[in-house]
Design the sequence.
């Protein structure tokens, strides 16, 4: 089953806080949809929490894209900015996957370091 990245990614935090999982919610929804005996709709997360989680997801995606544009692409050879296609050297709207993966790794490391630093500050 394919689920859009936004929906799948942002569902992890609220399901964890609600002591379930993304798969658990899907199974509950499917059981309810099938009208299985005793099946109920799962509880929905707090709207304010969801706004915060979704806003953070969009900020992360923007940061990943900006980071990808700032690093060289081994696929098409650009040093920075948008990727290009090989055939006609046209600028594309997409970022080659290895470049995007490298940017994602960098951003996730920066976020993890920021969370660790924030935790150290709170402990003081």
Sequence:
């Amino acid at each position: 089953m394919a689920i859009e990245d936004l929906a799948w990614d942002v569902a992890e935090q609220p399901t964890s806080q609600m002591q379930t999982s993304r798969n658990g919610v899907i199974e509950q929804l499917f059981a309810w949809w099938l009208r299985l005996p005793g099946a109920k709709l799962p509880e929905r997360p707090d709207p304010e929490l969801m706004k915060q989680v979704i806003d953070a997801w969009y900020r992360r995606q923007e940061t990943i894209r900006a980071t990808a544009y700032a690093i060289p692409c081994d696929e098409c050879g650009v040093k920075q900015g948008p990727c290009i296609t090989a055939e006609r050297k046209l600028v594309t709207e997409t970022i080659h996957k290895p470049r995007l993966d490298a940017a994602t790794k960098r951003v996730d490391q920066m976020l993890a370091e920021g969370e660790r630093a924030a935790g150290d500050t709170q402990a003081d």
User: Anything to note?
Assistant: DSSP finds four helices and no strands in the chain. Helices lie at 5-17, 22-33, 47-70, 97-123.
